[in-house]
């Protein structure tokens, strides 16, 4: 049993909520709020490209969830299950030098794409965030838009909302949500093939017309059957309005 199964069960329900309901946290105990830290390597002398860093973040997040240690008998299963059973929060932080090396000692997985590196860590209660992570900055650095060229064939596509502006940190969290939802809905052969490829994916910003044609909010189940497309809908705690669809993911 995959730790991501609850995502599949909640997917259509979440897309159908009124926008204001997506930010309702009245049923949460603040002491139990959990998040996955996603650490973005951003060296001052050689910053990564924005697209490659987002692709690394997307792969790292789902890799943690589908690692063998996330299986029911594995050491990561209970922390991941507790996190997935609630809201899927991620907090992206930037690191360089010794601080980047320090987070390599924490439980998680680092992915490198075209020289860009991101490390997704095992989720934990926010109030128990390790000091190696809590000392890292959440905001303050940004990467310029780049021109990544045509998306490679044979890997899932992650499409950023062309009408919504997001920082690289916000984008990193959103594409990580996208790969998790996609993985929860793939069949076993499709998931095994993706895992064999290291969960590689492409991140691109499509034309507005393409986005609107694919966006599955009105018919999430039909969109998955016809086009293999799922959507990330944000609660709106940071940067975007509640209920905003930030990313579409399309299976390979």
Automatic annotation (TrEMBL):
Organism per entry: Amycolatopsis coloradensis
MF terms (GO), sorted A to Z: peptidyl-tRNA hydrolase activity
UniProt-listed Enzyme Commission number(s): 3.1.1.29
Listed Gene3D superfamilies: Bit1
Name of the protein described by the UniProt record: peptidyl-tRNA hydrolase
Enzyme class: hydrolase
Catalytic activity reported: an N-acyl-L-alpha-aminoacyl-tRNA + H2O = an N-acyl-L-amino acid + a tRNA + H(+)
InterPro entries per UniProt: Pep_tRNA_hydro_II_dom_sf, PTH2
Keyword hit for Hydrolase: yes
Keywords associated with the record: Hydrolase
